[in-house]
């Protein structure tokens, strides 16, 4: 394979992993917009998405699609419970934002350790969605899974855009993020919508986990690295801007791909944190400008 | 035009000994007032008297004690969503419109609880009838409109929920006199059609033109109830302010 083919191939895989970061980043934005909280348990959703699908698939021998759907539903429930059991009691006591953010970090650790106890510490992987040899275009090999990731992510982002733009519930959620008190004065059930925001964010995390696990592996402690990448994606996209987070994720994926190609795999995290620093220094409000 | 058609009977909204605190500061020290069908009542008073707090306390947005009775039953404390759902609707100070959203979306959110399409259309028609100017601006981002138009959207949004009682916090704030006149006239019309209205205003003469009763709030207490027909001059009113 010639050099050019290798570059293109790396860039494509960079975009596809970037889409996953983007989905996780959008999850951060959805909760942040609804509540002002940065949810550090976002990584747990990603890990659980892959892990629960794995368990249903390998231990209970459910069909792949059913396993994935059940896993997404389960993670959505975890997200809703996180809001009800961890965030809300603090919210009602007028706890400082910092306390609530730390509480989500604690929840992340609890979920991580419970998963460790329930499953084990071995890395697991999911089969690719379609077991076919990569498509060859010119000298470039494109795996089907990266196509699934890119197409799936675009579809999810479009669906989310429609949800916020067109549906009654989506508009009400936007209203809450603009002015929660004014929303309450319209009779919009603000607190129920906050639970809903956690559930949506959890669903996004789970989808990201299910899409990405076949290309890598998952384990009880895989959530945090993904959450950090998603967090960086959200910051370089403009925190609180869902579409920005998606662009930020793709940017991050591309930068990492170029770094790995030029300097070696050890530079993956160096590249991620460097691009974060570059944005914080030069354009702290991110690609699209921050929402608040 | 004074709007005062109330028949004797249970008032639609009745406030009994309402007190409200922000942390340790007692902003409202005891307010009693009522409004009935076809009445527009004004709450007047200088800056910092507790006018906004009174409305916020009625909605349950503050920590409060005392009672708010709506159609004879007590409203639960600290439940603004529930109060709004029952039909007690506040147009807050500063309007509280959803700036980045369109006028259409703002109005739709006012009728959040309505799912029926035909009913929604009927309510839109009613609001367009009240504020014809809104109709031409539906696609516009609400935050980019003039203050007066934003206030119309705020009142229109409140009317989309078909309130049983309407509370307004200084709708004239920062508006040109002509627009203020237009909005107050619409409020008068609504009240004359039967909607109970509580209007908080700093500009007393404007409010007194419409009000059937005015409560004077000073330092967190209602210190006087005024019949606007008996107020003959500004001097007389000023006495209340400075008494």
Q: Key features?
A:
heterodimer; A: 292 residues; mainly alpha; two-stranded antiparallel sheet; 2 strands; globular; B: 243 residues; Rossmann fold; six-stranded mixed beta sheet; four-stranded antiparallel beta sheet; 9 helices; 10 strands
Uncertain residue segments of chain B: none
Average pLDDT score of chain A: 93
Query: pLDDT average of chain B, as an integer?
Result: 91
The count of helical stretches of chain B stands at 9
Largest interface: A-B, 18 and 24 residues
Looking across the biggest beta sheet of chain A, what order are the strands in?
Answer: 1-2
Order the strands across the largest sheet of chain B as they lie in space.
Answer: 6-7-8-3-9-10
**How many domains, in number, for the residues of chain B?**
2
Distance between the termini of chain B: 28 Å
Strand content of chain A: under 5%
Distance between the termini of chain A: 48 Å
**Helix coverage percent of chain A:** over 70%
Largest sheet of chain B: 6 strands, mixed
Supply the CATH superfamily name of the largest domain in chain B.
P-loop containing nucleotide triphosphate hydrolases
**Could you give the count of β-strands of chain A?**
2
What fold name goes in the CATH topology slot of the largest domain in chain B?
A: Rossmann fold
Highest CATH level, the class of chain A = Mainly Alpha
Give the class of chain A from helix and strand content and strand pairing: mainly alpha
What is the helix/strand order of chain A? HHHHEEHHHHHHH
Describe it for me?
The complex is a heterodimer of chains A (292) and B (243). Chain A is mostly helical. Chain A has a single domain (3-282), classed as ABC transporter involved in vitamin B12 uptake, BtuC (Orthogonal Bundle), CATH 1.10.3470. Chain A has helices at residues 3-35, 42-58, 64-92, 97-118, 144-166, 168-178, 180-185, 190-212, 223-237, 242-263, 268-282, and strands at 135-137, 140-142. Chain A has a two-stranded antiparallel ribbon. In chain A, a hairpin with a 2-residue loop joins strand 1 (135-137) and strand 2. The radius of gyration of chain A is 19 Å and the shape is globular. Chain B has 243 residues and is an alpha/beta fold. Chain B folds into 2 domains: 1-87 and 167-243, P-loop containing nucleotide triphosphate hydrolases (Rossmann fold), CATH 3.40.50.300; 98-162, no CATH class. In chain B, 36% of the residues lie in helices and 26% in strands. Chain B is built from 9 helices and 10 strands. Chain B has helices at residues 51-59, 80-86, 103-110, 117-130, 132-135, 147-160, 177-192, 204-210, 234-242, and strands at 13-22, 25-35, 40-44, 63-70, 73-74, 88-91, 165-169, 197-201, 213-218, 221-226. Chain B has a 6-stranded mixed beta sheet with strand order 6-7-8-3-9-10, sandwiched between helices. In chain B, strand 4 and strand 5 form a beta hairpin. Chain B starts with 12 loop residues before the first strand and ends with a helix. The relative contact order of chain B is 0.20.
